[in-house]
């Protein structure tokens, strides 16, 4: 795997391999010393043109637990904010000897441009580009689903037949886009539920069914309900009457939570707007995977960095090496 830019082009075998490697990395997180020497001597740059503390910290933790050197590059307050182009920034990173660049950008396609331009000879990981994709979020969501529904250590398993309902601001959500394509690749049945104003103009090519009524979707007893954040910062028009009306019609409240199947799980990519798209009771219930998603994000991003930078030799012993300082497992 040279780059990780999109889930749309990720094959089933590559997706399952990445999830399986993430299982190995999750095992490492349970050791007394949570580090591997696998990427010692490699340099990972977190290149963030958009704020995202959660994603940046997750990638930073992942790289450091693989013993890579990490450089955090924030566009705000840097030469980028003074007009430096993406090309100039890439060439600066190339001169620093970056081996991998984790990029988040407000423009859809910026990671693709960085990966294919020839400006830098480094693996590129898309950490979110505009309203396009967020592949590692979808991968950590799939990893969380697989662990909850099939049990920990479920290597080699896909999500065949799992029903997933994604609810809310589909229009502005790169998380939804990445999840739709990845879940379809892994065999899941995906349903999108949203107000008509919060769906893209044309979703006919998406491998998902479309609905507008959350109650009927809940009554179908999906295995997974994923609530999306209402992205007020991207909204420059009235997409729904009021927040109270949105919460009443499309929010996951206690009554809807109680109607879900006994084994259904509730997901949210975060950060959550409690009381809007999800109630506190739903967010904090035993069915909620919100905290697991954060922890699993580190394991999945470790797997992505490992596969990009180590050659991905899973037949070797790289993921099972002793911690960098020789400490106990």
Main features:
329 residues, alpha/beta, Rossmann fold, 2 domains, 36% helix, disordered C terminus
Question: Could you explain how this protein is built, in words?
Answer:
- The chain is α/β, with parallel strands linked by helices and 329 residues long.
- The chain folds into 2 domains: 12-133 and 293-320, Rossmann fold, CATH 3.40.50.1370; 135-289, Aspartate/ornithine carbamoyltransferase (Rossmann fold).
- The chain has 11 helices and 9 strands.
- It is globular and about 55 Å long.
- Mean pLDDT is 89; it is low at 313-329.
Tally the structural domains. Answer: 2
CATH class division of the largest domain = Alpha Beta
* CATH topology descriptor of the largest domain: Rossmann fold
CATH superfamily of the largest domain: Aspartate/ornithine carbamoyltransferase
What topology, given as strand order, has the largest sheet?
7-6-5-8-9
Number of helices: 11
Q: What is shown here, in short?
A:
The protein is α/β, with parallel strands linked by helices and 329 residues long. Helices cover 36% and strands 14% of the residues.
